[in-house]
Specification:
Number of strands: 15
Strand content: 25-35%
Strand order of the largest sheet: 1-15-14-9-11-2
Order of helices and strands: HEEEEEEEEEEEEEEE
Radius of gyration: 36 Å
Number of helices: 1
Largest sheet: 6 strands, mixed
Helix content: under 10%
Length: 239
């Protein structure tokens, strides 16, 4: 049986795969067959030969597809991995935050958080995937020169604490509802107002945002219902 040549293979003269015609080799069974006469081969043998030829192509590494490549390979068009959420842990006992958001400062109630917000612990919604724009704050009394506006949305019927994780050389404070009051930690009380179509408390939205010394990633500890987790907020720069 002849070994099929790979596409683009240049056979060496004398190799059985070079396609050149040669005088037939007579065995005892074919002694009476005239030279160059076609000898029929049973169909079953043709199929076996074709199968063996395919196996030989695979064994020799022939590639008839014009190149390979895995769908999992990285490249300019590769899909980015989704950000892995921080683990949820039991919240340790902490002193009450120095600032409590005034429920009168809410700007809206809604059935669900806005599109693009990340829900944490099932009770808090923040913007974690969009880089927030910063602008210069007005007033010489401001402790941090830059401000990034971003709403806070909290499920009614819950009490939520948010605390900035200190970062050396990167001062930050937060504030919602109370425009002129910012701090490193705040509490949002139960500001239930109305229910959704399913009878659950509506979500309550507050205006406010982040006050920082310079653009960077601000990490918050979020606590609710005895649990805690972390949120990474890109304030003027990616996390």
């Amino acid at each position: 049986m002849l070994v099929p040549a790979c596409p683009g293979h240049n056979p060496v003269p004398g190799d059985p795969s070079d396609g050149a015609q040669r005088p037939p080799v007579h065995s005892g069974l074919l002694r009476d067959v005239p030279t160059w006469q076609h000898v029929p081969v049973p169909t079953s043998r043709v199929r076996i030969a074709a199968a063996l030829g395919g196996l030989l192509l695979s064994a020799t590494g022939c590639d008839t597809g014009g190149g390979g490549g895995s769908a999992a390979e990285s490249g300019p068009g590769a899909t980015k991995r989704a950000r892995v959420p921080e683990p949820t842990q039991v919240a340790e006992h902490r002193p009450d935050p120095p600032v409590t958001v005034d429920c009168a400062g809410r700007i809206a109630t809604q059935a669900a958080p806005p599109v693009g917000y990340t829900v944490l612990l099932g009770d808090v919604a923040l913007e974690t995937d969009r880089r927030l724009q910063t602008s210069r704050t007005t007033g010489a009394e401001s402790a941090h020169p830059l401000f990034a506006k971003s709403g806070l949305v909290v499920r009614g019927g819950t009490v939520v604490d948010l605390e900035v994780v200190p970062t050396p050389g990167h001062g930050a404070a937060i504030g919602w509802g109370n425009r002129d009051t910012t701090a490193g930690a705040i509490r949002v009380p139960d500001c239930t107002e109305g229910t959704t179509g399913t009878g659950e408390p509506a979500w309550v939205a507050f205006a406010g945002g982040f006050h920082v010394d310079r653009p960077g990633c601000v990490t918050l500890i979020v606590r609710s219902r005895g649990l805690r987790t972390r949120a990474h907020i890109p304030v003027g720069a990616d996390c």
